[in-house]
Amino acid sequence: xxxxDDRPADSEWTLLAEKHPILARLPLQLKxxxxxxxxxxxDLLFRRxxxxxxxxxxxxxxxxxVRHTAAGRQVxxxxxxxxxxxEASMEAKAYHCDILAAEEGxxxxxxxxxFRHALDESREFRQMWVSQLAGEVRRLRxxxxxxxxxxxxxxxxxxxESEGRSGVVTLTQSRKAWAAELGLSHEALYRALAxxxxxxxxxxxxxxxxxxxxxx
Length: 216
Description:
Blueprint: E1 3-4, H1 10-19, H2 28-33, E2 35-39, E3 44-46, E4 54-68, E5 74-80, E6 83-85, E7 98-111, H3 112-121, H4 123-147, H5 152-163, E8 168-170, H6 175-182, H7 186-198, E9 202-205, E10 208-211
Helix pairs in contact: 3-4, 4-5, 6-7
């Protein structure tokens, strides 16, 4: 069960800033208003339809924005192992997705009103936030392009090209979770990977998937 701790101590902020440099730019008042929430895999941090009261920054573990289709299939709209998640909730009247913990970890919660005030008062923090949102727009654009591709193989290739480094991705999640992120059933993903490997389109080595070019 998720639980809210006291606000991070100064010594913990120092460690957090070393691991997550973006936190080093937080205004002091916003730090003073922050709280830490710990969770285990499967915890529902916030439910779809509830009013947002906090901005979330993932410091450990993995958190996902999830929706469920009419058929009951889970679709992952956003996942984070480090950084802000559900950024649009600051201006929303209600969460549009469930916010779920995929594995044990923790988030830092910043009250929405305090976050807005910090953006108004700090130019440096505001510039950081604009950069954050621009990166999220790029990610969502790539995801939208991918979800409009009909074939599983095309979605896999698009993911490797857009999210990988030189067409190489090492998964940090289960293949079943990756299938949900791709908008596929895990059976469809496994069949496509096996077929693509047999055809020489990709190579599989444990959790590392590489897109092969001509002559590879």
